[in-house]
Amino acid sequence: SIASYKIPESVDVVVAPSFVHLSTAIAANTSKCLKIAAQNVYLEGNGAWTGETSVEMLLDMGLSHVIIGHSERRRIMGETNEQSAKKAKRALDKGMTVIFCTGETLDERKANNT
Question: Which reaction is catalysed here (predicted)?
């Protein structure tokens, strides 16, 4: 397991398990250098957003990091730059560390277009 590795204190390692495994990862984490991140967050605060997870919920779980704008969310779910920016602003305003994904599609990368 990753917990058995000696991580230098000058290095932060971030892992982002699927949502259903977040609580297990949080409970198993004994390293100050290992951070657990959520793979996504909803762009609004707490409310009747069935199936969505707010920044406040992530904070309640003890998370400090979140991935926003991953290429799969953009390509498959149609997430826009505007939606990603709104998510990032909410997370940053609440003190989270945002891992903001930008960049190319796989086809663009393979074609050396970016």
Answer: D-glyceraldehyde 3-phosphate = dihydroxyacetone phosphate
